[in-house]
Specification:
With 213 residues, the chain is an all-alpha fold. The protein has 2 domains: 95 residues, Endonuclease Iii, domain 2, CATH 1.10.1670; 102 residues, Endonuclease III, domain 1, CATH 1.10.340. The protein is built from 12 helices and no strands. The longest helix is centred in the middle third of the chain and has 19 residues. 37% of the residues are buried. It binds a DNA duplex (10 and 10 nucleotides) through helix 3, helix 6, helix 8, helix 9 and helix 11.
DNA sequence: CTCCCGATAT
DNA sequence: ATATCAGGAG
């Protein structure tokens, strides 16, 4: 159930963001779906900019799933150390590569449900890969999308899966991918978690957080 | 719910 | 010193 008030708010907000961020793309450097999958797993709790620094060399050394399994796990841990959670992420990537080889002929499946079944891949990562590598309509609810959706008042839910469902009701499928990018761009540039720049924000008129200050 | 975990801005 | 960074698994 989405109230008319929220539907109207969403229309105004996304109209402004659409104009503000006309050409949105993933900031994660990648040249194919497999690289995007690895980069997205690595991006958990860490900025795209730092992932890109690591993947610049990583993607020269590891080309296909087999490459990640061929080295001792300690070597992969060292290669991604600076990103944090390096033990978890190494294990996830290795298991994910085994699963790609055993269940998907070494290819990244172009299917949301199949993606979420891979090690280290939850709804957010699956959405990023589905939307950006395969143009499958999806909304990736990351920390920015969550924060802005709650601050603006596009949803009253705190659970990412519920936020995703709420946003999908507010937008046509054709805009699912771009809408998450708009919120992410706005979250990084203006509605910054540590210190929101409300003075520079163009959607304060429709923002619950701003109007309740 | 807790744990994983380094880099960075404030 | 502390919060936060394009989360996911157990």
């Amino acid at each position: 159930m989405t109230s008319k008030k929220i539907i109207n708010k969403a229309d105004k907000v996304f109209q402004i963001l659409r104009k503000e961020y006309p050409d949105v793309v993933t900031q994660l450097d990648h040249e194919n779906p497999f690289e995007l999958l690895v980069a997205t797993i690595l991006s958990a709790q860490c900025t795209d900019a730092r992932v890109n620094i690591v993947t610049k060399d990583l993607f020269k050394k590891y080309i296909i799933p087999k490459d990640y399994i061929s080295v001792p796990v300690e070597e992969l841990e060292k290669d991604i150390f600076s990103l944090g959670f390096y033990r978890q992420k190494s294990k996830s990537i290795r298991n994910m590569c085994v699963e790609l080889i055993e269940n998907h002929c070494g290819e990244v499946p172009a299917d949301f449900d199949k993606l979420t079944k891979l090690s280290g891949v939850g709804r957010k990562t699956a959405s990023v890969v589905a939307a950006n590598a395969f143009n499958i309509p999806a909304i990736a609810v990351d920390t920015h999308v969550k924060r802005l959706s709650n601050l603006i008042g596009l949803t009253v839910n705190k659970n990412p899966e519920k936020i995703e469902a709420d946003l999908k009701e507010l937008l046509p499928k054709e805009e699912w991918k771009d809408s998450s990018h708009w919120l992410i761009m706005h979250g990084r540039n203006i509605c910054i978690a540590r210190r929101p720049k409300c003075a520079e924000c163009k959607i304060t008129k429709y923002c619950d957080y701003f109007n309740s200050k």
